[in-house]
Amino acid sequence: CEKLRDSVDLGIVDIDSKLKDSLVWTSYAPDIYNSIHVRECERRPSADYMEKLQQDITPTMRGILVDWLVEVTEEYQLVPDTLYLAVNLIDRFLSQRLVAKQMLQLLGITCMLISSKYEEILAPPLQDFCDITDNTYSKQQVLKMEKEVLNLLHFQLAVPTIKTFLRRFIVVAQSSFKVVYDELEFIA
Amino acid sequence: MEEIVHLGIPFLTPDQWDVITPAYKDFELIRSEGPRFGDMFKCKLKSTKEVVAMKILTIPEDQKSNGIPYSILNHVSILKTLNHPNILKLHTVLRTDLDVEDVFLVFEYIDVSLKKFLATPFPIDVIKLGKPFLRQALSGLAYLHVQKIIHRNLKPNNILLSFQNHEISKLKLTDFGVAKSIEPPLSPYSINMGNPCYKAPELLLGFTNYSTAVDIWSMGCIFAEMIKLQPLFIGNDGPKILTEIFCLLGTPTEENWPGVASLCSFIQAFDPPIKPKDLAAEFPKLEPDGLDLLSRMLCLCPNSRISAVEALEHPYLRP
Questions:
Q1: Where do the structural domains in chain B lie, given as residue ranges?
Q2: How many contacts (CB atoms, under 8 Å) link A and B?
Q3: From which domain of life does this come (chain B) (predicted)?
């Protein structure tokens, strides 16, 4: 992460100076994004846990789980941040702990519960998350799993996700245009 | 709002005792701020004899059905992000077994809070201690702000100090219970937390788009309190404090705080505006550089208020 510090000097257009609600933001923005980069490196899930650690689950199963979580996000009208954080938590959990096939959905829904509490203004109650698994798992199981996830990940929920950077990149991408393209805001 | 000081053994449920007594002993309550924020007590680690401070975050009864609430997730995840010599270090989060729902935080232990220190009968030598105090406090704050975290509840209670040969050997910011991780672009945040005496004027006026500058204001109030040996602004509620602020620093105008009148129409009722008092007369003990820094930290307009990083470069704090 040493290199990241140098990148500040390469800045060409100061995109932060245009922010309406900048307050003291302008002077801190470069430092803030550097520290986010560092944190991203520190808290990245391992890239090869499927091959190295997991025995029962496969990349396809993870794919199905994530697709299903996208549907859950839509069903309960959650913000994309919740989904991104949940996937990050799932991957970090799977990087460290062997999980059986039957428990993968429980892990998914638990991470979704944690991240919705963390990101949403009004998080859905626990019962909603049990309902959407067709009550495959009980409330007690989810609460127990929540404790396990938080203990294993040491409560480290402040992780930068795709969205953290996407917002910034959109501002960067538009810096040379006079008219702001509102459409881009939708992908963030 | 005030700290209730009663030393003794902390009041814990049998379940809570069961969690901590296997590894810890010699419990002694050090501060109590009511059930919502949890008592803090010191204890000894049985294995190494190390003295640590412990805080138990309990889940409010009405939120238990949804597991660990946002307030605790946010609090602990912010603490986990921080690592700086001027921020109280979180050693561990105790693993709890299934029946105990609380979260146990184990911190390093530091002797006294600034509040206790200010209450001692011996006057502080601000001329000597003011600079090292501000330097350390502001570097902790600068670190926080770069981590995109606003503390939102700075007060003498939440600044811990330890002394060696009458010099500050350690200074730690603590209590991140209402801290907030901010994300650009800034969105509106709650303005209801924190002690009104140390609240920035933009919060008291009800602006929800505030930022890191609110912590600088609080730090300015605390610095002034160290000199005056009593809180700079005294009152129980926002309007009272706001009046005190305007009496000392004058009412904001469109010139020194652009946009204030459009966001807060009653400001225009002050016509002509109240004139600010001369800070030099209010703080006769403080040298001119110190006065200049204080006035920049207590600048009414948040956009013109000095930032922590800039303050560290100020002539008053330069070694």
A1: 2-108, 112-317
A2: 106
A3: Eukaryota
